[in-house]
Design a protein that fits this description.
The structure holds 2 protein chains of 2 kinds. Chain A is of the alpha+beta class. In chain A, 23% of the residues lie in helices and 26% in strands. Chain A is built from 7 helices and 11 strands. In chain A, strands 1, 2, 3, 4, 5, 6, 7, 8, 9, 10 and 11 form an 11-stranded antiparallel sheet that branches. In chain A, strand 4 and strand 5 form a beta hairpin. By secondary structure, chain B is mainly α. In chain B, helix 1 packs antiparallel against helix 2 and helix 6 packs across helix 7. The N terminus and C terminus of chain B are likely disordered. Classes of the chains: A alpha+beta, B mainly alpha. At the A-B interface, helix 1, helix 2, helix 3, strand 2 and helix 6 of A face helix 1, helix 2, helix 3, helix 4 and helix 5 of B.
């Protein structure tokens, strides 16, 4: 299998990808392609102009408060330095990109479906505290090994961490606040107010069912079974990323996970926000590389606390050592329906 | 108090040149997939001119940011082209023809997958191209078109549904026709 994209969000299946790739009118450039004369001329012309450090944002809808005088900081070093620093391993001089530490999982048995159903039963009895406002508020912290693999051998890996908060109304309008955490640079803030449809709901707010069969149909709609069982974990992550789920739905989601072929119990774990959780996992190579998808759940109230994607046996052409975490999401506390678009 | 040291103009220039050398070919390929050659070259130059002026953004966000900027430049080029066509049309007493900016449109006449791709709504088509042609992951592609990853996933799922019937039947893609 030729690795192409390692995103867990690979949503274009290989057959379609190949068909569309076949009508690409311009093949990917060679990695070592030198600048031609026109490119060198343009470069000289650009360098001859006086750079302006701050200007009005060119994006149409973006509204950016608090971006006074962003210093032009340590720029070339950035991509490299970020990848060396964020994960906490210092690997100066290494050709490998740093990745976050792998969480420690303590064995907690082998019966994943049984444990999931037990938590589901407990969760179903809880009162609904998701609130009754207009906007679905969800906050996450995530990290991704950004990768782009060219047709030839060049691989570029950069590390980006961000915190995202969304307030989504039923028509898909709302606010999207993204903060990119970059060491020794001020946090980049993207704060956008989006019109109807801008936040693209996969399911209408409050529409996910507590009925097992109906929920499976709803989750399967945008996450087809032909992509393999790991797609079910992606569906669960997407649901939690979009809206707060009341206890009855959370219980149904846990039963949906329990029905996932091949799901295993990874064990007890302390998540990246310091919360105690229980983790289930599934191995899949649908993305092109053998990947373990892990979900961390709160054993007390059945919430999804986090997800981890880990390469297990090979990194293909990516410059990371295996096993390693290639992406995680922390679902922060406080997911609820609210009437304001303020935190 | 600003704790961050500003780059010296030397370091700034080196950073920009590195960015330029690293990504020029990719940005030019992006523009060529969506516009004819002279326009594509201008779009690449304009994109990096913006990057030079907004170097902090360009360096922090990398290639997806450059693609997004190139998309805006392409839109400007297309509008300018349409204005020229209208003017030329009035001068000649003729209605303006459709702009011939998109090389993918030529393929569309010959190949059903390309045709189907060309008929997708703009947002879906662009996301599909970014994911396959530019090989971006979903989040980066979403950043280029300026929507959330959730919205991008929804659009791609819709596009998949529209394109799926074409894949059920054997692909109408003889190699001889596919290779430019």
């Amino acid at each position: 299998v030729k690795p192409r994209l390692i995103s867990p969000y690979t949503v274009v299946p290989p057959a379609l990808r190949e068909a569309i790739d076949a009508v690409n009118p311009v093949p990917a450039p060679r990695p070592d392609e030198p600048l031609d004369e026109r490119a060198r001329d343009d470069l000289a012309r650009i360098l001859a102009t006086t750079p302006v450090t701050e200007g009005p944002e060119r994006e149409v809808r973006a509204h950016r408060p608090g971006r006074r005088g962003l210093a032009v900081a340590m720029a070339t070093l950035l991509a490299v330095a970020v990848s060396f620093l964020i994960g906490g391993h210092r690997q100066t001089g290494s050709a490998y990109a740093a990745t976050p530490p792998i969480l420690t999982y303590t064995p907690a048995g082998t019966d994943a479906p049984g444990v999931l159903r037990e938590i589901a039963a407990r969760t179903a009895a809880l009162p609904d505290t998701t609130g009754g406002g207009t906007y679905a508020f969800v906050a996450t912290r995530d990290w991704d090994l950004f990768s782009r693999i060219d047709n030839d051998e060049r691989v570029t890996s950069e590390v980006v961490e961000r915190r995202t908060s969304t307030w989504t109304a039923s028509d898909g309008s709302g606010r999207l606040l993204r903060r990119y955490r970059v060491p020794w640079q001020r946090t980049h803030v993207d704060d956008e107010t989006l019109p109807a449809g801008g936040l693209g709901l996969m399911w209408p707010l409050r529409s996910l069912s507590a009925d097992d069969e109906k929920l499976a149909r709803q989750l399967g709609e945008g996450h087809p079974a032909e992509n393999g069982p790991a797609e079910r974990l992606v569906a669960v992550k997407d649901a939690y990323r979009q809206m707060p789920l009341p206890p009855a739905v959370r219980a149904a989601v846990l039963r949906y996970l329990a029905d996932t072929p091949g799901i295993t119990l990874a064990g007890r774990v302390t998540d990246r926000a310091g919360r105690a959780g229980i983790a289930v996992a599934l191995d899949s190579d649908y993305s092109g590389l053998p990947t373990r998808y892990t979900l961390i759940l709160d054993p007390g109230d059945g919430r999804l606390l986090g997800s981890e994607d880990m390469l297990t046996t090979t990194a293909g052409k990516l410059n990371v050592r295996v096993p390693c975490v290639i992406g995680y999401t922390v679902y922060l506390d406080g997911s609820r329906y609210t009437d304001t678009t303020e935190e | 108090v600003d704790p961050l040291p500003a780059l010296t103009s030397d370091a700034r220039e080196r950073a920009f040149v590195t960015l330029y050398e690293r990504h020029y070919a990719a940005v030019l390929a992006y523009a060529r997939r969506r516009a004819a050659e002279p326009v594509a070259r201008d779009v690449a130059a304009e994109t990096f001119l913006v990057a030079w002026r907004r170097l902090d953004d360009a360096l922090a966000r990398g290639l997806p940011w450059l693609y997004r900027t190139a998309a805006l430049q392409l839109r400007n080029a297309e509008r300018a082209h349409q204005r020229q066509q209208r003017t030329a049309g009035r001068l000649a007493g003729l209605a303006a023809g459709p702009p011939q900016l998109d090389p993918a449109a030529e393929y569309a006449e010959r190949q059903s997958i390309a045709e189907a791709l060309a008929q997708l709504p703009h947002g879906e088509r662009e996301l599909m191209r970014l994911v396959v042609w530019e090989q971006l992951d979903l989040r980066s592609a979403a950043a280029v078109v300026g929507c959330s990853p959730g919205a991008a996933a929804v659009r791609l799922h819709r596009a998949r549904r529209r394109l799926r019937p074409l894949l059920r039947s054997p692909l109408p893609l003889p190699d001889a026709e596919v290779t430019p």
